[in-house]
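Hi U.,

Before I forget, here's the chain from the pilot set. I'm dumping it here mostly so it's searchable later in email.
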Amino acid sequence: RMIVPSDQIGCVIGNAGQVIQNLRSETGAQIRVLSSEHLPPCALNSDELLQITGEVAVVKRALYQVAARLHDNPSRSQH
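Structure:
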């Protein structure tokens, strides 16, 4: 699981969920945005919780791709 600022989650989900669907297909990982009730106490109310599950190699591949997308689309609200 990873906390993602709400203004960045769109780069992982994509238009009509296309990006997250492609990530799932390419990596074989299960990738979900969990509801706000699952946010840990350290998270901001505006944060989103992303969960990646699967075999270790699959999760690593998906995590790398998600991290690259987040890196290429920095948060506007956090410096």
